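W.,

You were right to be curious about this one. When I first looked at the sequence I had no strong expectations either way, so I just let the prediction run and decided to look at it fresh. Below is the sequence, 722 residues in total, followed by the output.
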Amino acid sequence: MTSGAGVLTDKSTFVGRVQELSTVRKLLGRSRLLTLTGAGGVGKTRLALRAAELLRDTYQDGVEVVELACLETGDLLESEVAMALGLRDVRRDPMGMLVDHLSRKRMLLVLDNCEHLSAVCARFVDRLLRSAPRLQILATSRQTLRVSGEQVLTVTPLSTPDSGPGCDHTVRGVGRHDSVRLFVERAAGAVPGFRLNARNVAPVAELVRRLEGIPLAIELAAVRLRSIPLERLARELEERFDVLVAKTPTALPRHQTMRATMEWSFRLCSAGERRLWARLGLFPSGADLETAEAVCSGDGIDRLDVLDHLTGLVDKSVLVRDGSRYRMPEALRAYGCEQLPPPEERRLRRRYVEHYRDLVTEHRIDRMVPEQLDRYLLLQRELPNIRVALEMCLSEPALAPMELEAASAMWCFWLLGGSFAEGRYWLGRGLERVTEAGRCRAVGLWADSQLALRQGQTATAVRGLEEFLAFARGEGDESLVAHGIRSSGVAAFSAGDARRGLALIRESLALHEAIGDVDGVMFGLYVGAAYGSTEDPHQAAEFGERLLAMCESRHALVFRAYAQLALGVAHWNLGERRRAETLLTAATEFTGRINDRWCLTQCLEVLAWLACARDEHDRAAALLGAAHAMWQAVGTSPEWMSYHATWHERCTRQARAALGRSAFATAFRQGSRLGPQRAAAYAVSGAPRQRSARRGGQGAKPPVTTGVGGRPRPRSGTSPAG
């Protein structure tokens, strides 16, 4: 989540707003939708986040914050909210999945920065509130959503000292105002030891009045004390504002003030800093130094000067340094984008697109390389910026092939993250524009088929694979042919023809080996071990052992977990349960830690079968429930995966028969409420090395599911208990 206007550092303290916080609490007590409105920089985001923090313990199912400023298109709104809630939707109806997930939850959903998607947000919020009767929504926007039942709280600037005779101009009197408290705190950060006293009380009071109590304006002004004294700062603001506000006499006063403050701050920057400010406005999730140098240098910015300009913008509170990344409050980002001259913007957009095209192709995670995990985490961090690049490509017909190329290169990222719907969204839009037969379209069809197969959309996948294979064979490209044959094998398994599926897997594996395609061999071994485990478990185990050795020798940590999963399934089918559980427990520990939902979901499923085989039926039911929640979250089903379907049905039937319908339903529900991280921890707690102290052959109970604030929830038919 990124900070909004008025939040200049994640660690900065929250000042004032006591009355507003009380009002938020009261309005949420009698309304299910509250929208905080106000001008940019007035502190809507900061108020919403503070309210969410204070109200967290009052919601049984917690508080979730979704930052929408990084979302450039409303087409992905539902998927973005689903991802923020821990869901990874792959279906054509992500809204339906959200409704299923939220229908019985009592929680607060905070939607921050809705203004650029107001119409889409309004429809989304309206349907969500109608379908989830216990849900409440707190939104921030520069305009109301105009949804039935909406309560609106206009966030006004912080209180400022009155002027004129009869007013309290003492240090104590002036210091009571929130705008003064904020200025003094931020000024002390810029000039250690700064405090309000009899000598500076008058200029401080005048300065915050001039800034009309707008938090972002106050913070931008306070950092200037590093370079100029307070009296000069107040005088400079007064003179500059008279000129700048006169340019927009019809604007609302507070909009004039915020605009004038940003223009004043912009003009106080050096020429290089101004150019960099404008160019960094293009990055919704910020950028690191390397990216800023690659994309923003040139046209008046020397690459060697970028770091100095970044440091200068941090010093002026235009940028926030967050680890190795530099990001900008939304109001300042929008202002910066406005400062780009059209010719410069066109060149910048091209560099931006090319940079992220190169980034996703150079950091593919479908490669057997030691830095595989680093690549996965990098793509997670850069995803909002990548989305902007993809959208830019689609807005220019000539760049559509570049978009399809980048989206195709990310197919494995979409797969691991369980973000099948988003992956197919970008692939589908690219395929709509790239209609001419060629390598770009063919690879896009293949990538789309990989996701479609996991969605259970076998017919769609087969059509794409047929066109892909026709191109590959026509080109005589043996590597592409091998990939197409392997994927056709998966399609055959999905259609119920296991014998043909395994034959195609063997054929593709032989082709990959013949041409020395290590990555292709890896995928062939994985599919052979997993999908082939029910048809020929002995050969599947051989495939799995080879795959695990390959991953370990090349330190490919992400694929090692998939090797452990596939080999574990093979050993399960061979009846070698202890070996299967050891492998699956290791995979569960790792994938739970890196948020690989696709592998973790399958691990939980197979660990449920193992628990059932030990007659730990309550544990099996809980793990089935945890897996079920995640199967739903990624929008697929074990019935669509040939190597899961039979054992899933058998395990469910046996556990239900052993426990009885009521007890099974209770344990299943407990597991489904754990969430991925707690589910992974619970699954690992049942590993063989940790069961020695248990009695009676029963597995451990699911951990007590707590409400927000750490309080155990009561045991009931609708709340999970331990």
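Here's what jumped out at me. The chain is about 60% helix and 5% strand. And, maybe more interesting for your project: The CA atoms of residues 221 and 233 lie 8 Å apart.

Coffee later to discuss?

I.
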